[in-house]
Amino acid sequence: MLDAKSGATIADVDASTDAAAVNAKSHLPGDHPAVMPAKVGILVANLGTPDNYDYWSMRRYLNEFLSDRRVIDYSPFIWQPLLQLVILSKRPFSSGEAYKSIWNHDAGESPLMTITKAQTAKLKDSLAARFGDNVVVDFCMRYGNPSTKSKVQALIDQGCRKILFFPLYPHYAGATSATANDAFFRALMTQKWQPDSRTVPAYYENSTYIDALAQSVERSYALMETKPDVLVCSYHGVPKRYLMEGDPYHCQCQKTTRLLKERLGWADDKIVTTFQSRFGPEEWLKPYTVEEVARLAEHGKKRIAVIAPAFSADCIETLEEINEEIRESFEEGGGEHFTYIPCLNDDDAHINALTEVIETNLKGWID
To answer: What are the DSSP calls for 65-106, one per residue?
Structure first.
């Protein structure tokens, strides 16, 4: 934008001054809209969470989630009647009970919300130590609140002329990373003056991330008198068809397991890759975690540990599905000792890994 009187561009403005001083320094007309100092925004994104576990909160959340064509890509003419008339009349009750069992009642929010807030707070401190107040860090959710659109607007309102969007998924999948990016791009479509933007790619093979995973395993194993027979790396599943259509998620998960095994210095038979959270009638990536843990127990593996490398924060799929449903399957198969190793959450090693990924993707914008 060019001022006709002075020839000064808004980009020439000293970012250290406030909006009023910016207008004065650039000799903008007095009635010109206030121009904020230019900053860089970092917006981290997680999957999402219902506002509460009551029926209507769950229904709103599930409707948004299950209506996403990246998540369920069946024809809406077939899927939407089934979703609205059958699934959403029943599932909010069962999902609500599951959320209730893990809910952070003191804070009045889901564990995913509590953890994402803690991660964001630590990232703010970490990045402020490196870049000062030239960066603004915030978080959003792909589904539910706070929405991606609202947080993009909040960053722009704070003067962010560049935004780095960071889906907190170590592995790329169309149903996770891509749909988060879609929401970000849609938010930019509503802006008169779009900020420069970048999206952070998958970081499944980042050595600092792998090391953080390994440290969490080592800490957990150090507390046990008898070590598990097998470590199960349980990743969220997707339909097998997605792999055949070019989605790289399966291959990236397999590589994370291999790199973790090599970092730990383990033999091949000490670690396995499985996939959980199957939904619908078609075949998903195998082996299914719930079946594999039962098979391991039946074949004499009486002690196992389970870790979920694809989740950056503990949520319903880890705290309820792994720690309850999958644990139960293992014990019914004859297993005796089941250990769930929590997600990296706001562990300092995890924050260091996320900070490193962010710094790499900020190169050329701020150094």
So the answer is: HHT-TTT--S-HHHHHHHIIIIIHHHHHHHHHHHHHHH-BTT
* Closest to 123 measured CA to CA, from 342, 311, 350, 312: 350
Q: What is the pTM of this model?
A: 0.89
- Edge-to-edge strands of the sheet including 337-341? 271-276, 230-236, 303-307, 337-341
Strand partners, 45: 140, 167
Q: Where exactly are the structural domains of the chain?
A: 10-37, 40-203+348-362, 207-341
DSSP per position, 173-231: -IIIIIHHHHHHHHHHHT-SSPPEEEEPPP-TT-HHHHHHHHHHHHHHHHT-SS--SEE
To the question of domain 207-341 being in CATH 3.40.50.1400, the answer is: yes
* 160-167 β-sheet, strand order: 135-144, 39-49, 160-167, 196-199
pLDDT tens over the chain, length 367 residues: 434 334 443 344 444 445 554 555 556 676 666 666 789 999 999 999 999 999 999 999 999 999 999 999 999 999 999 999 999 999 999 999 999 999 999 999 999 999 999 999 999 999 999 999 999 999 999 999 999 999 999 999 999 999 999 999 999 999 999 999 999 999 999 999 999 999 999 999 999 999 999 999 999 999 999 999 999 999 999 999 999 999 999 999 999 999 999 999 999 999 999 999 998 889 999 999 999 999 999 999 999 999 999 999 999 999 999 999 999 999 999 999 999 999 999 999 999 999 999 999 999 998 7
Q: What is the CA radius of gyration of the chain?
A: 23
CB atoms within 10 A of CB 86: 10
Strands 271-276 and 230-236: parallel
Q: Beta strand pairing status for 39-49 and 196-199?
A: unpaired
Asked if domains 40-203+348-362 and 207-341 share a fold, the reply is: yes
CATH annotation of 40-203+348-362: 3.40.50.1400
